[in-house]
Specification:
heterodimer; A: 113 residues; B: 111 residues; mainly beta; six-stranded mixed sheet; globular
Chain lengths: 113, 111
């Protein structure tokens, strides 16, 4: 089955702790993305990567970090510097040069208390 | 003013109705347009993808793009309860990189 997997589905952390969200794709897509979704809002771009070992900040990168060591993996770390980390996090991927359609994973719901 | 405006609804229709969902945008550079469907607590699913102006039909779904008016629409014919979801429009000006999303319209189709 080709697709994007995110784990875990639900994640709970205490304030002040860093947490890493996993995203893996086997679609052979070059580009990968991380979005944040809050209730009643659309998706906001955190980071994106178009090629291994390279990534760019999105609109709300503060308090987050990423790495892209392998084509199929794009983990997101939510650091203690992120002021309001509780949200639904979505990972997506797309083929370069094939238009902009992006395909999403099932999401991770992060709750920080 | 947001780059992409989408009426959040909620929209409630009876089964079998024709549904019209709309987005307006301000950036004339946008040329790739998408509609996503998102069920509660799930990731968005790509429904329709169009490039530039025109219509595209796929089963009960029709996407329309009017670049002169900076307006896109998604029509759902013969709506079903299983169509109940949040519908997100998204658009981009390049063939790679960033999508700009509307805030989503919550649709409920009741039997």
């Amino acid at each position: 089955d080709g697709g994007i997997t995110q784990s875990p589905k639900y994640l709970f952390r205490k304030e002040g702790q860093n947490v890493t969200l996993s995203c893996e794709q086997n679609l052979n897509h070059d580009a990968m993305y991380w979005y944040r979704q809050d209730p009643g809002q659309g998706l906001r771009l955190i980071y994106y990567s178009q090629i291994v070992n390279d990534f760019q900040k999105g609109d709300i990168a503060e308090g987050y970090s990423v790495s892209r060591e392998k084509k199929e993996s794009f983990p997101l770390t939510v650091t203690s510097a992120q002021k309001n980390p509780t949200a639904f996090y979505l990972c997506a991927s797309s083929p370069i040069g094939g238009g902009d359609e992006q395909y999403f994973g099932p999401g991770t719901r992060l709750t920080v208390t | 003013q947001k780059e992409v405006e989408q009426d959040p609804g909620p929209l409630s229709v009876p089964e079998g109705a024709i549904v019209s969902l709309n987005c307006t945008y301000s950036n004339s550079a946008f040329q790739y347009f998408m509609w996503y469907r998102q069920y509660s607590r799930k990731g968005p699913e790509l429904l329709m993808y169009t490039y530039s102006s025109g219509n595209k039909e796929d089963g009960r779904f029709t996407a329309q793009v009017d670049k002169s008016s900076k307006y896109i629409s998604l029509f759902i014919r013969d709506s079903q309860p299983s169509d109940s979801a949040t519908y997100l429009c998204a658009m981009s000006g390049t063939s790679y990189g960033k999508l700009t999303f509307g805030q989503g319209t919550i649709l409920t189709v009741h039997p």
